[in-house]
Amino acid sequence: MYTAISTKLINIAAAALTGAVLLFGPDNGVAHAANQIVARISLSKQTMQVMVDGRPTFAWKVSTGAKGHVTPTGSFKPTRMHQMWYSRKYDNAPMPHSVFFKGGYAVHATNFVKRLGQPASHGCVRLHPVDAADFYQLVETFGPANTRIVIVK
């Protein structure tokens, strides 16, 4: 358990430091492009791999659209973010740490963690609450303009 926590903190710190160096430059004061965050979601594997500047940083189980509910495929930029959102379409269902990427579709936390790794949502990409908070923080730190959400079959 401590190893997982330590590794996670190291990954977050390394990603943040790398982003700061790329954004502000090592010593010359000239701004450079910030890190690119790519979240690649595999519908067939029900996983999400997060890469920072091309390096795998996180790998998480997800739940995407259950039978009859489509999760859109393609490449998207985050359109808006909310620490807490309540679904207007599904009885005010809570959607903590929401990163919206297409209309009402978002990457967000779920309390139904036993269903992670299998399709279970109405089309959103669900994550464990800790993982969703980490992803939200990464997107907030590096910016939606530097984030891409890629969903593949």
Can you describe this structure?
- The protein is 24% helix and 34% strand.
- The protein has two helices and nine strands; from the N terminus they run H-E-E-E-E-E-E-E-E-H-E.
- The longest helix is centred in the first third of the chain and has 23 residues, at 2-24.
- A hairpin with a 2-residue loop joins strand 2 (47-52) and strand 3.
- It is α+β, with helices and mostly antiparallel strands.
- The chain is globular, with a radius of gyration of 16 Å.
- Residues 27-33 have low confidence and may be disordered.
- The strands form two sheets. The protein has a five-stranded mixed β-sheet, with helices on one face. It has a four-stranded mixed β-sheet with strand order 5-6-7-8, covered by helices on one side.
- The chain has helices at residues 2-24, 129-142; strands spanning 37-42, 47-52, 55-61, 74-76, 80-86, 94-102, 105-109, 125-127, 147-152.
